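Title: Request for sanity check on Thioesterase prediction

Description:
We are preparing a figure and want to confirm that the structure record we downloaded matches what your pipeline produces today. Could someone re-run it with the sequence below and paste the raw structure tokens into this thread? We only need the token string, no images.
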Amino acid sequence: MITTKLPVRFVDCDAMGHVNNAVYFTYFEEGKREIFRWFTPSMDLHDWKVIVASTHCDYIQEINYDEEITVYTWISTISRSSFDVEHAIAGPGGVWHARGRVTLIGYDYKQKKVVPLTEAIKAILRKHQDGPAGVPTLRQIRNV
């Protein structure tokens, strides 16, 4: 599991006085920084090896300005060419603010095609499959 501590900036907040819903995805992105380094140690965008296929966020409790939050990031599912990254955001005192998931795919940007994950990458991903204790489950999407 990867743990990333972030301050909530004034610019993250909207007219409602709390963190704007779109900013949660930016927090999740910061939590994935180490994962990006596993694929592209140089962080050179011309050598990037993953692409986002899907994202999801469950908002649990609002986040307010000047809090320090912790983004927990871990790997759940690993497939041939893709893997799921799970996220949870907690505030002071362990209050859960959000749960999320992103599906990333191995991708060759020059050839514009999906590529299988290497066994070496899969081994690294498997080392990070434990999430935090007490984390809320993701809500199931349903038709209403």
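Thanks, this matches our download. Residues 23-31 form the longest helix (9 residues).
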